[in-house]
Amino acid sequence: MSSIRTTALLCASLALAAPAWAEDAAPFVTQLRLPARDTALDTFAWRRGDDVLVSRADLARLSIQAPGAEERVSLASVPGLTYALDDAAAAIVLTCSARCFDVQRLAPRAEHTASPLQNARGAYMNYDAEAQWLDGRGVVASGVAEGAMFGPWGLVESSWLGASTGEARGLARLETRWTVDRPEQHLRMRIGDSSAIAASGAPVRFGGVQIGRHFGLQPSLITHPTATLSGEAQSASTVELYVDGALRAREHVAAGPFAFENAPLVTGAGEAELVVTDVAGRQQVITRPFFVSMALLRPGLSDWSVSAGAERLAFGRENADYGESFVSGRYRLGLTNTVTAEAGIDVGDASTTFQAGATAAHIMFGQVRLAHAETADGGATEAAWLYQTSRWSLGLQSETRDPSFSMLGLRDNRLLRSTAMQASVNLEHYGSASFVAAAVDEVEASEARTYALSYSPDLTFGTLTARLLYTEREERELSFGLHFALALDSDISHSFAYEIDDYGATYRASSQRSPAFGGGDGWRARSVFGRQQRLEFSGSRRGRIGDTVVQVARTQEDVGARLQHSGSIGAIEGYRFAARPIRGAFALVDVGSPNVGIARDRLNIGATGRDGRVIATGLRPYDVNAISLSADDLPFDHATAATEIRVAPGEGAGVVVRFTESTQTLTEAHARMANGAFAMRGDILIRLRDGARFPIGANGRVVLLGLERGDVFELASNRRCSTAGGENVTSPDLVISCAA
């Protein structure tokens, strides 16, 4: 009967569609079979002489690429496709090579969808206060305060520095600005104090307006070119991606071509290996060399910024000391997968600077960058080369400037020439070694040279580094140092160092335990003796309202102590709080029950307070942050609709994460084994239909959420033990039977 109904439906569809099709082809009902993918599709086709035509939409359902744009496609016109008519089975059997299949796009970098921003409004102030006492000099107090207001309109910030004595005595304004971000367009606008990249490549502090592209507003966006890793599977297979011998991704593919998009490759040169394994265990290995450069932009992708304002002077000392006015622009464009071009211009009161450059990268020659800046008084040229692999790296850099060259942010230029070379090698079981050499030549100064050689053996019980340093300017100095670090347990580390130079030897030893991320106590003991003398001890505590450090120290000349506390106070959506310093972004987590453990990306950050709330700091702006709670900490009469919520807050802003109470019913039962004994306390019942987990308490007590007729549960400790699915969902006992 089902085949009759299918034929009737197809004929009806054909009758309705007939006026839109050409009348020179005879229709017939058939089944398109694709054995390579174990797929069959009931449809209709057309005969035109010896030719067979099918719908373009049907081919798309089978992931077969059809040429042209006609609604009907001749099977003979599809590249790589052959077919055979099976009149007895009323079917068309298709055989497809790699050319006729659509390419399967594999994306090993999973992207999670965050909950929409809750448009929270609020304000807070980060503070870092410190009091320092020195014997014979009294007490010196200092601190930094950063105020912020956030909402749908953006982020307003202002930071201040204060001290009781010294050159910075009193209050000094650091930065004040308003930031508006548009993540969808990767655009950021700032009004107030900011920094711009001058044509020289150096940052310049200024006050004014800045607008430009900011890729950090979408952290998952890959801006650099990535290697294309593709292959072909003859049948359903598993594809494993190895990068320099390490497994990075595993995906399942159907028969046909496939390609990895945004493959997780390492920076520099390397070798990727695709291992394709079919259901019969047959393997094919595809090897591809690659070179990844983060300095490049994808073809057609651009990065730009425009700034206008006045250069900031005496930062940290004066509140509003501004100098030269300017307008600046910078633009970068990815031309190809191997070349990115850049250009910049600075127009100021004193001069105009033009800059142009390009970066190229290829596995044959590595990464090369050339740039030149020119003003009316002179020019500056920069060149750099880098080749990096998992085994070794080598880099060279050179910069030359004319004596009269000056530009925005660099009016007092003293540099004439600088060169540097860096080399490193991974000796595997024998450790690693590196060498750095640099030379600087300045106006009216002798040339300075530095050479550094370091070696670290491959140790299983700690890390050891030996370093030899030679410097030369007015005087020559040679020094040698050893540094050894050791962690005896999970949270206490020790380090020892030895240094010797022309002035004598110095010995250092320290032990420390850092506070846990979620809160706790820590300490550090440090001693220095030899040419220098110092004893130091500090204790720290990370609490709900901030971090506190108490330190005492003694040197050959002085005895002193320091007390420091950093934290934040503020309000979000009417809720006032005191918390740890806010860096990046934060969330107000509302569970509704006290003492419930909260984690960010599975990292414990603390527990809810008496009001059932906690401030979660350290969230990554614009990235997906998973806020989860410990379901075991919830009271038996309180169940939440979810145990994890994903959010993506804006930079410097806060969001509200509410774990709403579930509307499902709670059922209290007792789990018993078939012999009548209670199930073991601490075991877990797993519901088969949704994987929900329910812990077993004393006397087999278990609270079940959303129990339905026919639910079957298994014991986590023994998956062969399960309950029978019954109709009575109010039974006080769940009887667990174990298969032999």
Automatic annotation (TrEMBL):
Residues 1-22 form the signal peptide. Coiled coil: none annotated. The gene is caf1A. It comes from the Bacteria. This is F1 capsule-anchoring protein. Keywords: Signal. It comes from Terricaulis silvestris. InterPro entries: Fimb_usher, FimD_plug_dom. One of its GO terms (molecular function) is fimbrial usher porin activity. One of its GO terms (biological process) is pilus assembly. GO terms for cellular component: cell outer membrane.
